[in-house]
Design goal:
With 183 residues, the chain is of the alpha+beta class. The protein has one domain: 3-layer Sandwich (Rieske Iron-sulfur Protein). It has 5 helices and 11 strands. Strands 1-3-4-5 form a 4-stranded antiparallel β-sheet. Helix 2 runs antiparallel to helix 3. It binds FE2/S2 (inorganic) cluster. FE2/S2 (inorganic) cluster binds next to loops. The site of FE2/S2 (inorganic) cluster has 13 residues, from loops.
Length: 183
């Protein structure tokens, strides 16, 4: 069971299913978090997960612990992951911007599970150099990175600053209405 590390303020199918591509995403995130010198082994490990490693990598999380409009940060294989319970306003704001110019274009629907649009689960690692963004609202209603000013919206899409990519989606599966398997 994952431990909650922090509560940070008031909250795709195709790209979020567990699989090789997700591990590539995670490996990319690890570069930012751990730095180049320490990343060689984890990179290899995550690109070639053995079956028993995959089993151990999955954890269950009870979403009922996350109030509407708030988020938790959990640790998964030493990497922070945001689980945000989005408000209807946050969802509407993300969808209103679906066709706005973006560095890494993606619709909001492609970043969440159909029927569970209120849940956004992403690696908490800025895609610039790996700092942990904070949820601040502000210009795009989402996260801001304290290191070099990257700004993400309520779908965790990069909207401003040096980060090249959206916050990476984290693989998860709903086990029932409130419980998810992460990883
Ligand atoms: S690490 Fe986030 S903007 Fe540089």
């Amino acid at each position: 069971m994952a431990d909650s590390l922090a509560h940070a303020g008031p909250g795709a199918d195709e790209s979020i299913e567990p699989g090789r591509r997700d591990f590539l995403f995670l490996a990319t995130g690890a570069v930012g978090v751990a730095g180049v010198a320490a990343v060689a082994w984890p990179l290899i490990d995550q690109l070639n997960p053995a079956a028993d490693t995959l089993a151990l990598a999955s954890i269950e999380y009870d979403l009922s612990k996350v109030a509407l409009g708030s988020e938790v940060t959990i640790a998964w294989r030493k990497q922070p992951v945001f689980i945000r319970h989005r408000t209807p306003d946050e969802i509407a704001r993300a969808r209103a911007d679906d066709h706005a110019p973006m560095k890494d274009p993606a619709t909001d629907a492609s970043r969440v599970k159909a029927g569970h649009e209120e849940w956004l689960i992403v690696l908490a690692s800025c895609t610039h150099l790996g700092c942990v963004p904070t949820f601040k609202g502000g210009e795009y209603g989402g996260w801001a990175c304290p290191c070099h000013g990257s700004v993400y919206d309520t779908s965790a899409r990069i909207r401003k600053g040096p980060a090249p990519k959206n916050l990476y989606l984290f693989p998860y599966t709903f086990l029932d209405n409130t419980k998810v398997k992460l990883g």
